[in-house]
Amino acid sequence: MVGLVMNNVRAAKLAAFAYLAHGERADLQTLMDHAKMERLLRWLDEAGVALYLSHECDRRGHKGSLPAEWRAALDGRRERNRNRVTAMLAEFHKVVEALSTSQITFAVVKGFSLQPEFCSSFDLRHHIDTDLLVTPTHIDGATETLLKLGYKKAAAEDFGEIRFFKGHPAVPATAQDDLYTARPESRVEIHTSLFESRTYTPFSLAENWQSEIRHKELGQVRFPTISEPDAFMLHVLHAFQHLAAGWLRLSWLFEIANFIESRRMDDHLWKLVAGRVASEQRCAHAFGLILQETSMLFGTKMPAPLAGKLIDPLPAILRKWNQDYAVKVLLSDFGSPSRHFQLVHGHFFRNSADRRRFITATWRSRAKLLASFIKRPNLLSKGILRQLDAWAHWLIWQVRSGYMSIQRSGS
Questions:
Q1: Same domain, yes or no, for 179 and 307?
Q2: Could you report the average pLDDT of every consecutive run of 10 residues in the chain (411 residues)?
Q3: Strands 152-153 and 130-134
Q4: Domain span at residue 232?
Q5: Are residues 254 and 182 located together in one domain of the fold?
Q6: Does 210 share its domain with 236?
Q7: From the CA atom positions of the chain, what is the Rg in Å?
């Protein structure tokens, strides 16, 4: 019985991939037939695709064929998120205006800057905070400006960003929280590097974002942001870093696919991206993994420069990992990260210091996860079983793939 339930859950999640890619009613019906609607909706929320799914149903004229409870759930989420991000946009306007008045050199990244190339409308995304890229010489000025707006500085993170909050400090969401209800705090993150890494040392990519700043408008808000090539590279590397940590939002790959479709004929852009990324092998492999996954899931036809320089040269072991495990990582629940990437993480270390840094970060995150399990005893046994399952997968995969021989051959 447990196996049947798990297969049902998997089939429903896979149907969400298929519907976003192809828009077939049959896939939508498979999704709707899942018995535990609330559980599936929660996964769609955390994967970042519930609102995209609702939008695609509207766009394809399929919303009327949905069961009443599904229509109500999706429409309610869209309305609540619209109200939430509208309030966030007002605060965003204040931050952008204050920094501009203070003559701070900055650019908005991710979030609101993704419309329209990655996301057709800002209210289709679940925004959490405002991400700002600031030149190192203007960090103090930006900090002072945010403090004057009522923000408080949180502890500095290990990966270079500086966090600020206004209102109540952010509390991690629980399974019972509504992700689309307005939260009582506002959050800002300042980054000093465009391509910082949360898992390994930063990729060796040249940064010149200050000289290529462009401006966008969202409602009445005009703000600076990075160039299209930089935005695409950042989105792909952001997805990779979360993949390496064991969990990433399906929506990030969907947005990558959207960007590629919107700029398909821009051969100059794709040659520029491929040329910059291919110059650093680890970065090229990271890109290749994410782009291959995007193609696998959404049928995205890759522009020739990306395919030729980043996907086709992928080592056989990384291609096999994508085939065997990429979907499993994407199907995992938030808070239950997959350990499968540990099978190939050695391909992305530059040296022993990278390896030590990764192991330290991994054990730190495991300790935090174990602490959360101890606080919730009903999850402790599930957590232990998940780790045993990950180890079993590792052993099986070693035998099936001939991992060591492929790695030695460098193919």
A1: no
A2: 51 88 88 78 92 94 89 94 92 96 96 95 92 94 96 73 79 59 86 73 77 92 95 94 85 96 96 93 93 94 96 94 89 73 79 74 62 54 54 52 44 42
A3: unpaired
A4: 228-411
A5: no
A6: no
A7: 21
Residue 74 near residue 19, CB atoms below 8 Å: no
Of 255, 241, 341, 266, the closest CA to residue 294 belongs to 255
Q: Name the domain count of the chain.
A: 3
pLDDT, position 364 = 66
User: Residue 330 has which token pair?
Assistant: 């994407």
Among 91, 36, 33, 40, residue whose Cα is nearest residue 65 = 33
- Burial level of 273, CB count in 10 A (0-12/13-18/19+)? buried
Going from the C-alpha of 118 to that of each of 232, 276, 384, 404, the distances in angstroms are: 9, 21, 38, 39
Q: 221 and 111 in one domain?
A: yes
Taking CA atoms, 42 is separated from 35, 109, 386, in Å, by 13, 27, 20
Do both 402 and 288 map to the same domain? yes
Integer angstrom CA distances of residue 381 from 176, 216, 377, 395: 21, 49, 8, 21
Whether residue 192 sits in one domain with residue 297 = no
Q: Do 250 and 375 reside in the same domain of the chain?
A: yes
Whether residue 151 is found in the same domain as residue 299: no
Q: Please tell me the distance from the alpha carbon of residue 28 to that of residue 53, in angstroms, as a whole number.
A: 9
CA gap 362, 360 in Å, rounded: 5
**Per the structure block, which two tokens stand in for 366?**
């495991």
Tokens 């991690």 -> residue: 172
Distance, CA of 322 to CA of 295 (rounded, Å): 11
| Structural domain ending residue among the three candidates 185, 202, 226 | 226
Q: What is the CATH number of the domain that holds 214?
A: 3.30.460.40
